[in-house]
Amino acid sequence: MAKVAPSILSADFSKLGADVQEICEFGADYIHVDVMDGAFVPNISFGAGVMKSLNNVATIPYDVHLMIEDPDRYIEDFVTPNTEFITVHQEACRHLDRTIQHIHSTGVKAGVALNPATPIVMVEDVLDKVDMILIMSVNPGFGGQKFIPRALDKIRRLDEIRKANGYDFVIEVDGGVNLQNCEELKSVGTDILVAGSAVFKAEDRKEAIAVLGK
Question: What is the CATH number of the domain that holds 39?
Fold first, then answer.
C-alpha cells in the first residue's frame, strides 16, 4: 500500500476549494501543493495565500513542494497547523543541512527533492536528518509529463540505503504517476504517490485514489 497525494496543480482552479474538499472525502492522504517561482523552474503556479485559502475545506495535511530558488526566504509562509511536510530541492539550497534545520525549527517535517539528473549521493549526508526524500520522475515545472523509467532504479537504491542504515524517512515520487505504473512504484519502495492528472482528470476520482493507494 501507499499513501496518495493528489497535486492540486492539476485541479480546476475555478473551483479549487470544491476539488480539494472532494479528494479529502474520497480518501486521499495529503494535498500536494506544488509551488513554482518561474526561476528555479520555467513556470509559475501559486503562493502561500492560495494554499491558506483552503484551510477551511482541507481535512487532510498539506504536503508542500517548494520548486523555488532560495526557499529559506519563504518557509515560514507555508507553515500552518495543517502543514505536515515542506520539501525543498537539493539543487536550490546553498546550505541544505541548514535549510533542513530551518524547516524543523518551525515544527514541520522536512523533505528534500531530487531532480531526475541528480544522483542520490548528493543527499547521503542528510539522510539521517530528513523525514522525506522526493524523487522527481519528470523534470519539474509542468504537469502532465511522461514518467522517466530511470526513477525506478533511484527509488530502489534509496530504499536499499534506508533499510541498510535503519533510516526512517519516507520515499515520495512525483511525475507521471498513473494507474498503470503505481504498482511497480510501490514494489520498489515508494511510500507516497503524488498524482495530478491521474486523479483530477479521472472519470472516477474516488476509484483512482483507491487504486493508487491499495
Answer: 3.20.20.70
